[in-house]
Every structure is written in structure tokens, then in C-alpha cells.
Amino acid sequence: MLAEEKAGFDIVPVFITVDPERDNVEQVREYVKEFHPKLIGLTGSLEEIKKTARAYRIYYMKTSEEDSDYLVDHSIITYLMDPNMELVKFFGKNNDADALADGVIKEMKQYKSIKAKA
């Protein structure tokens, strides 16, 4: 069961490539289809990606291509943002799908509770 189904919240997942030289709009569109039907895939210019990565403190670097393997070393972080695009919490790579869903639900319920009191 998806986190939004368990908690009753609307969730909009977003993926942003860190390699816009390779990942054009069509490639990103096809890539995100493999993960979630609502996943939005974004790309942009090299400068836009650098600016975004800097803002979210994302590390990325292309590594050498060996025997046609394409590698980009990068941070593995999932950010939970509120409707105003303010950071609520980030989750590292050590969270499996269930831990991530539970963490998102917890944060969303807390956010909703705080907003209801305001």
C-alpha cells in the first residue's frame, strides 16, 4: 500500500536528473514510468542542475566510462517538502521502502496537525 493511501495524503513524487547532458526530456519521461505512475521527472540545463544540486546539497560527479558502463556517482537522498516547497525532512539511502513510507506518513500527520492548530 502506498504512503498516500495509508495516510490519506496527496503525494507528488519528483525525480531530478543530475546528468542533463545525457538525460533529455524523453529519456527522463521513460525512466520515471518504471517507478511510480505519479512520479514527475525533471531535467534542465547544466547550470540549472548545478544550482539545484547546490541548493539541496547534492553531490554528483561523472566517473570514467569503462567498457561502455556509464557511471554517475551521486548522493542518494529523498527530500520531503511541504506544499510551499520548504524542507520538512530528508531520508538517506538506509531507509527501505517501508521505513520511508512510515517516515513520510509520520511527518505529514505532524505537519497537518500543526497546520490545523494555526
From TrEMBL:
<dbReference type="InterPro" id="IPR036249">
    <property type="entry name" value="Thioredoxin-like_sf"/>
</dbReference>
<dbReference type="InterPro" id="IPR003782">
    <property type="entry name" value="SCO1/SenC"/>
</dbReference>
<keyword id="KW-0479">Metal-binding</keyword>
<protein>
    <submittedName>
        <fullName>Protein SCO1 1</fullName>
    </submittedName>
</protein>
<feature type="binding site">
    <location>
        <position position="74"/>
    </location>
    <ligand>
        <name>Cu cation</name>
    </ligand>
</feature>
<dbReference type="Pfam" id="PF02630">
    <property type="entry name" value="SCO1-SenC"/>
</dbReference>
<dbReference type="GO" id="GO:0005739">
    <property type="term" value="C:mitochondrion"/>
</dbReference>
<keyword id="KW-0186">Copper</keyword>
<dbReference type="GO" id="GO:0033617">
    <property type="term" value="P:mitochondrial respiratory chain complex IV assembly"/>
</dbReference>
<comment type="similarity">
    <text>Belongs to the SCO1/2 family.</text>
</comment>
<dbReference type="GO" id="GO:0046872">
    <property type="term" value="F:metal ion binding"/>
</dbReference>
